[in-house]
Structures are given as structure tokens and as C-alpha cells.
């Protein structure tokens, strides 16, 4: 073999060995991982807003609105509704709407609209609160006969009648007092509340309660108020759905049944005979 070929073979062998060592070193070298932290770009976006009249707290149907029940709140202009009361357009809205009655329950922070309230002086607000087929009838109450002022609009009550009867028995005529629940689960539509005192303590009281009843039940309430004294018993919220929320009444008094459980009964009110058999 010629010297030139020998030299070429030696150089090629050395290059091959060097390449092998280079590849081995690269494969065994630790791989460095570079972690890229996400870049957060903060930008302040200015949203145009205006002042809208909203409810300061949740309010039930029949609640009487006072200036403390309203507040002006920032509202995005793109979400404005033409029915809202805007401070720039109606700066006196709080004073004008005070004294209105809530027709549909309001949630805290909900914008006030005309469809949710009945303004003072408007007619027909009570009729708007009545369910179809129902009637509104008022009955006189006192703190003693209405749970000391704790009964409020949209509460549920039982109507209790207490009256005197004269019963004929084997021993002759005798006087007795009967108490019975004549209407159950009646909805209170309104109470003419006013501030007064009971045993020297300031109390929110009322003299008249308006109930939502069926026509026959309204007749029963009117009849019962003539027979004796009426008391309202406040029901638990958990019992409001009893009988699917429909009031139940014992209308036997309208048919001349005094409830004394016998014949020869005369019902007295203020010393005068007012009914019986």
C-alpha cells in the first residue's frame, strides 16, 4: 500500500474516532430546560356608568317605601333600561317614590321600575295584588288581637273567632263562650301600621288588616266580626304552602251552625241575640 493511502486511512480513522466521542459527549450532557414565565399584561379599562335608583334591601309585597329604602348605585351605561330611574334625569325620584307600595317583591340592589311599585295616590293597587277569583276584605284589629304588631303584609294568618252563646240543656239555659278557628292560612295584603305604645314600649301597630280570601270566606269573615271578637294568629313561614297556599275556612256559621254541638242554641253579642237555632 502506498504511503499516501495509508496516511488518508489514518486521518479518516482519527476523524471517525473523534466524531464518535463528540456524539457520546453530547448525548450524555444534561439538558437544560428553560421555563418561560407567562407575561401578564394589566390594563385599566374605563367603563362608563351612571347613577340608577335601586332597592337598599329586599322588600316584600305590600311594603310601604320610605326614603331609607332607596339608594343611588353605579350602573353600566350599556346595560341601562329606559324604565330605570336615573339620577341625572330624575334627581327627586327618592322623594317622589316615598310612600309607594311594593307590588312585586324587590331584591337588594335591584333597579326600581314603575311596574314593581304602585305610587301613592294611584288607584287599583290593591286589586293588582289580588290573585284571580280572590277578594280583599278588611277586619278591625288591635295589638292584642294581631300578635302585638308583628303581623306584616304577605304574612299568613289564622282567623280565630270568640263569641258567647246560650245553650239549652236538661238543666235549662246556660251561657258559654266558644272559640274556634274559622279561617286558616289567609294571606295578609296590608295593615295600616302606625307607631304607638304598648305597656310603655314603642310598637308598630295597626287598626285594620286586609286579608285575601275567596268570596264565601269573605262573607264568613264579615259574619264572624258581627258575632264576636276576631283575633289573627300568625302562622310559620314553613306552613305557608299548606293546601297549596289556598286559605281554608269552616263556613258552617253561615248556615246557622253555632258550633256548640247541640240544638237550642242562641248566639249573643253585647247581650243581644244575633243568631242561632
UniProtKB/TrEMBL annotation:
Note the Pfam families from the entry: RcpC (PF16976), SAF (PF08666)
Q: Which domain of life is it from?
A: Bacteria
Locate the SAF domain: which residues? 50-118
Q: Where is the signal peptide?
A: none
Cross-referenced InterPro entries, in alphabetical order? Pilus_assmbl_Flp-typ_CpaB (IPR017592), RcpC_dom (IPR031571), SAF (IPR013974)
Question: What SMART domains does its record include?
Answer: SAF
Q: What is this protein called?
A: Flp pilus assembly protein CpaB
Phylogenetic lineage = Bacteria, Pseudomonadati, Pseudomonadota, Alphaproteobacteria, Hyphomonadales
Amino acid at each position: 500500500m502506498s504511503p499516501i493511502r495509508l496516511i488518508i486511512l489514518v486521518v479518516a480513522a482519527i476523524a471517525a474516532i473523534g466524531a464518535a466521542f463528540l456524539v457520546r459527549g453530547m448525548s450524555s450532557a444534561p439538558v437544560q430546560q428553560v421555563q418561560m414565565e407567562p407575561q401578564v399584561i394589566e390594563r385599566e379599562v374605563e367603563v362608563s356608568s351612571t347613577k340608577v335608583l335601586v332597592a337598599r334591601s329586599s322588600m316584600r309585597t305590600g311594603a310601604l317605601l320610605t326614603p331609607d329604602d332607596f339608594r343611588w348605585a353605579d350602573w353600566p351605561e350599556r346595560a341601562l333600561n329606559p324604565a330605570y330611574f336615573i339620577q341625572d334625569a330624575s334627581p327627586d325620584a327618592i322623594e317622589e317614590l316615598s310612600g309607594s307600595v311594593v307590588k312585586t317583591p324587590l331584591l337588594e340592589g335591584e333597579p326600581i321600575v314603575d311596574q314593581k311599585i304602585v305610587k301613592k295616590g294611584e288607584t287599583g293597587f290593591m286589586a293588582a295584588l289580588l290573585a284571580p277569583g280572590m277578594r280583599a276584605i278588611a277586619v278591625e284589629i288591635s295589638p292584642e288581637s294581631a300578635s302585638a304588631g308583628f303581623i306584616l303584609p304577605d304574612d299568613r294568618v289564622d282567623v280565630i273567632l270568640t263569641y258567647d252563646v246560650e245553650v239549652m240543656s236538661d238543666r235549662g239555659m246556660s251561657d258559654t263562650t266558644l272559640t274556634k278557628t274559622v279561617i286558616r292560612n289567609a294571606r295578609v295584603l296590608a295593615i295600616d301600621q302606625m307607631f304607638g305604645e304598648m305597656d310603655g314600649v314603642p310598637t308598630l301597630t295597626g287598626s285594620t288588616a286586609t286579608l285575601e280570601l275567596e268570596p264565601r270566606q269573605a262573607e264568613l269573615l264579615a259574619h264572624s266580626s258581627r258575632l264576636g271578637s276576631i283575633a289573627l294568629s300568625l302562622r310559620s313561614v314553613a306552613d305557608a304552602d299548606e293546601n297549596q297556599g289556598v286559605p281554608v275556612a269552616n263556613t258552617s256559621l253561615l248556615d246557622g251552625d253555632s258550633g256548640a254541638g247541640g240544638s237550642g242554641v242562641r248566639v249573643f253579642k253585647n247581650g243581644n241575640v244575633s243568631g242561632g237555632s
